[in-house]
Amino acid sequence: MDYLLTDEQKMIQELARKIAEEKIRPVAAKYDQTEEYPWDIIKVIGESDLFGLFIPEEFGGMGISVLNLCLATEELSRACGGIAVCYAASALGTFPIILFGTDEQKKKYLPDLSKGKKIAAFGITEPEAGSDASAIKTTAKKEGNYYVLNGLKHFITNGGDAEVYTVIAMTDKNKGARGASAFIVEKGTPGFTFGKKEDKFGIRASSTRELIFTDCKIPKENLLSKEGMGFIVTMKTFDMSRPGVAAQAVGIAQGALDLALKYSKERQQFGKSISGFQGIQWMLADMATEVEAARALVYSVARMVDAGKTNVSRESAMAKLYASDVAMKVTTDALQIFGGYGYMKDYPIEKYMRDAKITQIYEGTNQIQRNIIALQLIKESMK
Ligand SMILES: Cc1cc2nc3c(=O)[nH]c(=O)nc-3n(C[C@H](O)[C@H](O)[C@H](O)COP(=O)(O)OP(=O)(O)OC[C@H]3O[C@@H](n4cnc5c(N)ncnc54)[C@H](O)[C@@H]3O)c2cc1C
Hints:
single chain, alpha+beta
């Protein structure tokens, strides 16, 4: 399908595809196996300016573009969903600073983030507060010129490897959801440590760790926006970042489809290629159609965000929901086309199925996306 991309957008797509094919694909299995953080690839992505795609020009980037972020994330994910999320999660950690940071905060953090010299992360989830983010217990108490953070975040992507963290903590427990605030916390701040690295099912090249705050003193200047804005910061951030998760899902699905198509032409049974069987052809046709439908939805939501439309929660949720469900279905069908070989780790396809699963879970599970969409529908129907 022709999405009428500009020359610049096509260039970004081609650059990300080149990095994916030449640098990521050859090492994807290795990083999946070792669970090492892919610093060498992050360096390449940084040197290619892809971290600048979502950062304003005046702070070293190439201008904020969610579509550009999606194009790059999709291409990187086509080769490895795990390495791609190290990149996309840095955007997740950076968006709060872009959207709500002061000029000082932007000047301090964005130039290095735009070059990939530093990586960002975003932390809201806690052991008892996943889908119900309002249950977070981490506190930030104002003491003179500082906030003192205490508590624990878990399942944080880029945790331990990132230098810059956007963290949501309660400044006033009595105010419920209006008592949460967002802070920038730098790695190395006394009282800020990391828990164990999680041993995961998929996206194993990415790191997932606990963030532990023990009387962690941060300057009051590290508050993002105002006290009480923590959940607004989170929601507005997710509106911008969920198309990125959706793009990751599209990339994983496309990557699996590419492999399944190639394999179906090579694998001989009953004296001919399995691609000659209508049963396989219809699977391929459905997979290709679903991937294209997901891509079309993701690009149009990204374009809406880039055009400045503000209330995009429903559309961002739809893109994330649909694309991730497509990724799960397409990767499962791709494995089916590989038959028994697909079930073996010697073949690359099972990794795609494992990597796809997380896109239905993080940045709000797909049940939560459905809640967001339904609530909006009902609200609008009452106008
Ligand atoms: C690999 C990985 C990376 C992650 N990265 C980050 C990160 O960088 N930053 C961060 O802050 N968090 C991160 N997360 C956390 C992630 O966003 C949460 O895991 C997710 O929001 C779900 O929370 P939970 O795991 O506590 O599940 P729960 O909230 O306990 O949900 C369990 C089940 O109940 C369902 N459920 C819950 N409430 C409802 C409801 N109201 N209606 C219907 N069904 C419901 C859920 O959909 C799910 O199926 C990451 C998680 C993983 C696994």
